[in-house]
Structures are given as C-alpha cells and as structure tokens.
Amino acid sequence: MNRILYYHQQSNFSRKIRILLAEKNLECELREINLVNKPPEFIQLSPIGKVPVFVDEDGTVIWDSTLIAEYLDETYPQMRFYPCEPRRRLECRKWEELADHLGDNIINLWILNLKKIEDSRYRQRLETSINRLLEIFEQQLAKSKYLLGDETWTAADVAALCSLGYYSLRLDEDWLLKYIHLRDWFNKLHERSSVKSTVPEKA
Ligand SMILES: N[C@@H](CCC(=O)N[C@@H](CS)C(=O)NCC(=O)O)C(=O)O
To answer: Measuring CA to CA, how many Å separate 43 from each of 1, 46, 48, 66, 144?
Structure first.
C-alpha cells in the first residue's frame, strides 16, 4: 500500500511531517482532512481526532506529530533529525516540546479570536506564555545557528519554524521585526524547498 499522511494545509503539526517526508525523500499520498467535518475513515484511525496521522506502507498507523517524526527518523534514517546520543536527543525533544507548546498556545489564542470569546485572563495567560517562549527561542538562537548548535538543524528547528509560520499566518508577523535572531534563522530555513513549499496559506 501507499504511505498516507492525513493532514491539513494550515496545520503546523502536519507541516512538521510534510517537511520530514520531503527531506527524507519519502513518497507519500497526502489526504487533506476537513477538520470541521472529519470523515469516518479518519476518525477510525485517530483516537484523538487530530492531524497529522501517518500510515506507513505496511499499514502501521501513527498519530501525534512527535511520535510520527521519531518513527520516521528511526525507520528511515537517511538525513537524521534526532541526535543518537541520549542526552543530545533529550535536549532535542525538550526544544521540540517547547516549540509544540508554543504552537498549542497560538492555536488556542486564534480560537479565542475566531469565536470572539471574551476571556481576558485566559487570553493574557496565552499571550504571556507565547511571548516568554519567543524570548527563550531568541536567546538560544543568539548563541548558535540552530537550536542544538551550529552543525545542523533538527526536529526541534522543524517544530519551531512550523509554530512560528502558524503565528505569522494567524496572528502577527511583527515578531519578525522584534526577534532578530529568530528572524534570520527563520528566513535561512526558508531557503530549503521542503520549508518553502509547505508555507501555510490563508483559506
Ligand atoms: N499533539 C498533536 C497536536 C495535533 C493538533 O493539535 N492538530 C490540530 C491541527 S494543528 C487538529 O487536528 N485540530 C482539530 C481538532 O482538534 O479537532 C500533534 O503533535 O500531532
């Protein structure tokens, strides 16, 4: 069977996997999911009802972008995105987790805006968390070319650029003016066709 990725064009978590598939040169059928009206085929595969879901050639089903990313890296080790050494790998997973947390906060803030929900305390909590994380990423990228050093990008960079791409799409592009190290790193990564070709677009 063909590999299949159930995804959404604007989803930062789906984008992580689209970038890894392209970088690893893996053929994969892309099936875009209507997240407002999810098809039964998708619900059956995904207990959490969220994209991305990946189905490999042998029928292995994986949901959650980080589980899919780790699986792809271990199963298809060409172009590694996680370090092999346990402590460096942990470091990578920690940055990836922060990037995904940033993504979750941005999604939740966008939902507040979309549904015009007046909850100023929750909004403030989300905004504070987003700004704190942007500052943490900025400080890290002031020290090195990528999140884990100067040598190469990793799954952590992929996750972070996807969350920031989503931030630009939904909420605010001004971070590009404020956080200069983040901006330079972000723009440099967009030279890669895997990154350029997956930029989320307004519906
Ligand atoms: N932790 C999950 C989060 C996935 C997620 O939040 N996906 C969103 C799109 S970016 C989704 O499918 N939302 C639809 C819903 O919650 O109904 C992952 O890393 O894959």
So the answer is: 20, 5, 8, 19, 41
